[in-house]
Amino acid sequence: MEMMATYEEIRALAVQLVHERYAGAVAAVIGGSFATGRQTASSDIDLLLLFDHVDAAWRNTIIYQGRTVELFVHDLATFRYFCRDVDAPGGKVPLAMMVVEGENIVAPGTQYDALRALAQATCAAGPPVLTTLQSRQRRYAITTALEDLVDSRHPAEAMAVACELYGMLADLHLRAAGRWSGSGKHLFRQLHAADATLAQQLDCAQRLVASDLAAGQHAYAQVAAAILAPAGGPLLEGYDLPAPAHWRRE
């Protein structure tokens, strides 16, 4: 069985990696599971490297001394672009959160101060407010998925729908509350931080679909109704989505 590495061990390894291969970095931030104390024996190391200038931002996965390291390489301009133009419109800011939650292992300077200030401001600003169209799209997708789940008599199909529905419901609740969303385990963490009771209800509904389909269908219907109500409720009749006129091929 692989031994669980301590944060101090991971930090020392990251310091050595930066010293050997990325000595020009003006900041190196350990983020992810090791920064939040949620690491497992196989957790990779998320490491954001900041340089004075890069021709283009890039990411890379390497193996260093037997450890998987996920590298995210930026300068201030590319970091700002990714946070504001790539991540934020989708309601998720993983790079900014990595900096806010993480530790810089390079001697701090004005570049790191600017990086951290930008990350903090991004996180504090919250996600863009959902447009009317975005809200309607989410309500419609949830309503139709819930119908598929409630009508299902096939456990495997029901579980596939429930997995999709979980993400849509959690995302809508977070965005409607002005909170950043997430993906995978980060989605649950964001939801739990925002509303622990609802996170537990949604988790319970998901588990019930696997163990007692009828009970799971009922539980999902209840939690979906609670999440949809503030957003305007279920939506089927009256939903329309015209395609742009130029979407045609002669």
UniProtKB/TrEMBL annotation:
Chain ranges passing through the membrane: none
Keywords for this protein: Transferase
GO function terms (MF aspect): nucleotidyltransferase activity
Cited Gene3D superfamilies: Beta Polymerase, domain 2
Residue span(s) of domain Polymerase nucleotidyl transferase: 25-54
Protein name from the UniProt record: Nucleotidyltransferase domain-containing protein
